[in-house]
Amino acid sequence: MKKQIALVKGDGIGPEVVNEGIKVLKTIEKYTDYSFEFKDAPMGGEVWKNCGESLPQTSLNIMAQSDTILFGAVGLPDIPQGVAEKAILKVRQDLDLYVNLRPVKLYPSLHDMCPLKPEIVENGIDIAVFRENTESVYAQIGGIVNQETAVNSMVYTRKGVSRIIEYAFEYVSRNKFDELISVDKANVLTVSQFWRQIYQSIGKKYPSIKQTSYYVDAFCQWLIRAPSSIHTVVTENMFGDIVSDEAAYLVGSLGMGASGNINPNGVSMYEPIHGSAPDIAGQGIANPIGTILSVKMMFEESFQDAYLGEMIDKSVEIALEKIRTIDIYSKYAQNNSQINRVNCTEMGDAVCIQIKSVLKK
Ligand code: IPM
Ligand code: MG
Questions:
Q1: What number is the average pLDDT over the span 191-209?
Q2: Nearest alpha carbon, ligand 1 atom 11
Q3: Do the strands 126-132 and 99-105 form a parallel or antiparallel pair, or are they unpaired?
Q4: Could you write out the DSSP letters of every residue in 84-111?
Q5: SS3 state at 18
Q6: Closest CA to 330 of 162, 109, 168, 135
Q7: Which of 57, 94, 241, 244 has the fewest Cβ atoms nearer than 10 Å?
Q8: Is 255 exposed, middle or buried (0-12, 13-18, 19+ CB in 10 A)?
Q9: Is 67 marked active-site?
Q10: Whole-angstrom distance, CA of residue 344 vs CA of residue 308
Q11: Interval 41-70 mean pLDDT
Q12: Are the C-beta atoms of residues 73 and 274 closer than 8 Å to each other?
């Protein structure tokens, strides 16, 4: 199976972590029928400094013509605010990446990293957040009305709301979860009442899936009170931005988080959630697991290959039993002679050794 993969290495630690993602893909290529062709699609702060654009049209074309996209991170401290963000938002809009899937999982060997009390998380954390990725305040409608007033509108369309909710219900049904939670603010916002009506109406097609609506403030509280009881959540763009960061930190480090910006009928983009982290760039100490788990999502969502997805996940889990990067090298790990600190490439190597040992058989 030939697949063309656009690479957006980007800024800061982006190139370092994407290199580990490529390493995983090349290991898989060696032992399976997959064959990958990589094409760089430069984007972000460095590109902006060189050519005045953070997303050149040539890069967008490469992305649009690929089978899938692996994205590192964009953003630098010495470029104006909004330059890198605009590039990300333009890719989401132009490629119509309307599903932002953000899974959060606490690996058994990383229980000490969870900031919550052990008794709260003894049943683990395994949550998938489905964030609408093209509308709401991200539609960028608004502006400065006069010197004293600024406005951003929350834009919801029936099409936009329906397709993310349908995608989430289908995912829940396909993967045999028993509930889909919807997060809104229907006690205050008209757009949320519109959202809730559509959620309830689509929900009628899925009578065996439990349906619960939370207000976003109450949900944020519930997320730290009883995270083990939450598994699948669908919400609008800005609530999803906030809720997914809160959820991601429950497993102790943003370095572990993966995401998929998905167009179910087109090209999708897989991205670690940690950002460019310029303060640690170039030191080789970044955690590549967020990127490696983004590659796992690429197999599951874009290549429809649940087996390899699961295999990458298992390989990460096994590697984490013995080694950790600095962001997850807790007091517990430092005091445990069985757990060693490693750098970015060593972590990638360890995951690839596991993958190889499974695929070689
Ligand atoms: C995210 C980020 C982006 C967002 C920014 C960088 C535009 O916070 O992917 O969650 O707000 O969506
Ligand atoms: Mg965010």
A1: 98
A2: 241
A3: antiparallel
A4: HHHHHHHHHHHTT--EEEEEEE--GGGG
A5: helix
A6: 109
A7: 57
A8: buried
A9: no
A10: 22
A11: 97
A12: yes
